Amino acid sequence: MKRILSTLTALLLCSILFAQNDLADNILGEYSGRTGQFHFHARISRSADGTYRADVIHVDNLVQRDGSILRDIKNPDKSLRDTPADRIVIFTGLQYYPQQQRWGGTKIYDPRRGIKAPFDAWFTSPDKLNIKGSLLGVSKTVCWTRLK
Question: Which is it for strands 138-146 and 128-135: parallel, antiparallel or unpaired?
């Protein structure tokens, strides 16, 4: 009996996880993330062309000790280096791949280092979005937690 209940529990858990990954719009919402000391909230929304984008909407310690606003000073696009940290665009053009049950096809921007890297995203639970970026053979996975 325990084995049957264990198997049923595992199947239910798997179906819940796959349900999060099987519809493109499941990624929509607000998330909390951290990269180094940089703690932020981001909003993932759908663009008019059906792809997805993420915008920073909140940054802890936006106002620095000297009273200045934290800005995107490492952005490779010099025209964006004056952008306040709570208005940074993290990615645009994200696509959903139903066969893999993942999102990808674009690059994610890391404002801490001023670099963009190809990435994939998928849910490991209904409120945990894994984001794996890879650049020059080096990969890093971070987890964003759904807020809304």
Answer: antiparallel
The secondary structure of residue 50, as a DSSP letter, is S
For residues 46 and 58, the answer to whether their CB atoms sit within 8 Å is no
Q: Is 0.70 surpassed by the pTM of this model?
A: yes
Alpha helices in the chain (DSSP H): 2-21
What whole-number distance in Å separates Cα of residue 13 and Cα of residue 15? Answer: 5
| Residue corresponding to tokens 């890093």 | 140
Q: Which tokens is 41 given?
A: 């909230």
Closest by CA position to 90, among listed 138, 126, 58, 66: 58
**Residues forming beta bridges with residue 120, ordered by sequence position:** 132
Q: pLDDT tens across 69-106, in order?
A: 999 999 999 999 999 999 999 999 999 999 999 999 99
For the record, the structure tokens of 100 come out as: 């893999």
Token pair, residue 114, equals 């001023």
CATH, domain range 2-146: 2.40.128.520
Q: Which residue has the tokens 């000790």?
A: 65
pLDDT of 47 higher than 70: yes
